[in-house]
Write a structure and sequence with these properties.
α2 packs across α12. The protein has twelve helices and seven strands. With about 280 residues, the protein is of the alpha/beta class. The protein has two domains: about 210 residues, Rossmann fold (3-Layer(aba) Sandwich), CATH 3.40.50.150; about 55 residues, no CATH class. α5 links the parallel β4 and β5.
């Protein structure tokens, strides 16, 4: 599988764009909240955002660290990072160009699902090599669970784990929780903490966001802008992000973000959804 070719194609179309939002609404609000909790035991020296693309999460969490490194196999992605204090590293997550025992915290956000299952042990072994003895690897990725939207497939067609839209997004795997456990045990990493997510509420809030954006985009005839940004309704989301500090928008946006967080509050570890947060240690 040519990971470089695939990523260069996505980033050349701005499909995964620059997001320096201070608020990280909806599911991003939940990501920030959970990942910050996972970081409480981590030394705040070196943060490594592995496969971090344009550095959206390295930038956000990097404010707490002395050194920030963002790697990606795509040179186009790295070229879009505007911050001078972020070190850019052009490499694959299968072969991280960093010394042994180097990073206090490694982020692997929305990366796991883009790596072929046969390559996952190699990736995790190399990330373990880079991780300091007291460090943590923090993962957010998809899960083959029982979240709304994938239940029928989970029951009637379990061999086909990916949804059609996920193929378009470049996804190539969706593991069960048991498979995660087996993988990490194989590479000598321990699960310290985890939360199931995208069970019910997150899918409602993201559905509201996406459908609202598509309708407004259609009414405003923003087809050209959406095409350049890689997906329908994306131009409306970008415009909204620019205005998110206005009180009239902050209140409903925060409300919907908190609704998304209800998946964590009500279900967290006892009901596997469509995605998962994991904190790993040596």
């Amino acid at each position: 599988m040519d990971y470089k070719k695939i990523n260069e194609r996505f980033y050349s179309k701005s499909h995964w764009g620059l997001d320096r939002s201070q608020n990280k609404w909806f599911s991003k609000y939940v990501k920030v909240k959970i990942l910050k909790k996972f970081m409480e035991k981590v030394d705040k020296r070196v943060l490594y955002d592995a496969g971090g693309g344009v550095g959206n999460y390295g930038w956000f969490f990097g404010k707490d660290f002395k050194k920030i490194i963002v790697s990606d196999i795509s040179k186009i992605a790295l070229s879009k990072i505007p911050e001078k204090n972020i070190k850019k590293l052009n490499c694959s997550v299968l072969d991280n160009k960093l010394p042994n025992n180097y990073a206090d915290c490694i982020l692997l956000i929305d990366v796991f699902e883009h790596i072929k299952k046969k390559d996952l042990p190699k990736m995790m072994k190399d990330l373990r090599r880079v991780l300091k003895p007291n460090g943590r690897i923090l993962i957010f990725t998809s899960l083959f669970g029982w979240g709304v939207g994938a239940i029928t497939q989970r029951i009637f067609n379990p061999k086909k784990r990916l949804l059609s839209k996920e193929y378009k997004e470049g996804h190539v795997n969706r593991l069960t929780f048991k498979e995660f456990q087996e993988l990490f045990k194989k590479v000598n990493l321990k699960i310290e903490n985890y939360y199931f997510y995208s069970i019910f509420f997150q899918q409602i809030t993201d559905g509201i966001k996406d459908n609202f954006a598509k309708i407004i985009s259609f009414l405003l005839n923003k087809k050209k802008e959406d095409f350049e940004l890689g997906r329908l309704g994306q131009s409306v989301k970008e415009d909204l992000r620019k205005k998110e500090t206005k009180l009239i928008l902050k209140i409903p946006l925060f409300f919907l973000s908190y609704v998304s967080y209800l998946d964590i509050l009500l279900f967290n570890r006892w009901f596997p959804g469509n995605s998962i947060f994991i904190s790993l240690k040596k």
